[in-house]
Specification:
mainly alpha, two-stranded antiparallel ribbon, 2% strand
């Protein structure tokens, strides 16, 4: 790669995979200019088809770029999640309830750790993610767990947009409980009141935990949305201040332009008059030069006549003597 005055130029031949890897490893604001430069260089080198494919690559969003960066710089962490996804899919295909349950227990904390890793990777590169980005990152990682194609996209680090999965998600296989052994007395005993009470308490406890979990999730989302709203309002205020500054700048530029235009008009008028005077002076000079030449010619002729007359007079005087 050759850099000259801020322009990135590619002077080597590349294949598509190499080009995509290079481009999606860049920060988003450098992507478009680098992609276009590489497409031009590739086309100039005679490979129009490859240039067209490179030109078609889409600029990644900040979230997609952050996931791509994690795939490159924290591949071991991501590899554990992708391996979990492979085991989960295999367990689902084999209807292995134990393996599905184990993978399910590992999945939630592993995804949570990776969401933090993606955020840390973005912050280290100077592009911190918005509070609402966690949901997009989480959806992308979940898609990589349950879908093999999504897993490959995440692993290669070439995402242009966050992923989401709307298909069927593997869930634990529920196996029927074994038939109870035959009892000596065929008539079942009534469930003791204490056991029923304990079962009700357990059910209510599970419902309470589920309600608390949903409420905590709701509060977290509200907090994220409130933070996003605050950031958006702050950005809007800053944008409005910037707009007002540039409006004032434009008004001043208009006034300056009008002043300069008036001066140019005045100077132009003076220049026209000056040119007219210059033309008159040039005409006067031309006439004076012509008349001077005529006068010099007449004076020379008169001097010649005077000299001839003087000579004739001298000759006459000599003859009388």
């Amino acid at each position: 790669m050759l850099e000259r005055q801020g322009e990135v130029r590619y002077t080597w031949s590349v294949d598509f995979d190499e080009a995509a890897d290079r481009l999606y490893g860049m920060v988003p604001e450098e992507f478009t200019s680098a992609r276009d430069a590489l497409a031009r260089e590739t086309k100039a080198a005679g490979d129009a088809a490859l240039a067209k494919r490179i030109k078609a690559l889409r600029k990644p969003t900040v979230v997609a770029w952050a996931v791509n960066r994690t795939a490159r710089e924290r591949s071991q962490e991501l590899g554990r999640l992708l391996d979990l996804g492979r085991r989960l899919r295999e367990a689902w295909r084999g209807q292995d309830a134990d393996a599905l349950a184990e993978a399910g227990r590992e999945r939630t904390p592993l995804v949570a750790r990776l969401v933090r890793s993606v955020r840390e990777a973005a912050e280290e590169a100077g592009h911190p993610l918005a509070p609402t980005a966690d949901l997009e990152v989480e959806q992308t990682l979940d898609a990589a767990v349950v879908d093999e194609d999504a897993a490959e996209q995440v692993r290669r680090g070439r995402l242009a947009r966050p992923l989401s999965y709307s298909g069927f998600t593997p869930a634990p296989v529920v196996r029927p409980a074994p038939e109870p052994a035959a009892r000596a007395q065929p008539t079942p005993k009534a469930e003791p009141e204490a056991e029923r009470h304990a079962g009700d308490e357990e059910r209510r406890e599970r419902e309470r935990h589920e309600t608390e979990r949903r409420e905590a999730e709701r509060r977290r989302r509200i907090e994220n949305l409130e933070n996003a709203l605050a950031e958006a309002e702050q950005a809007a205020q800053e944008a409005e201040r910037g707009r007002a500054d540039w409006e004032a700048e434009r008004a001043e530029a208009v006034r300056e332009h009008e002043r300069r235009a008036a001066k140019v008009e005045t100077i132009t008028a003076k220049l026209v008059k000056a040119k007219d005077k210059l033309n008159a002076a040039e005409h006067r000079l031309e006439v004076a030069r012509r008349e001077e030449t005529n006068a010099e010619r007449a004076a020379r002729s008169a001097r010649q006549r005077a000299e001839q007359a003087h000579a004739a007079l001298d000759e006459a005087r000599s003859a009388d003597e």
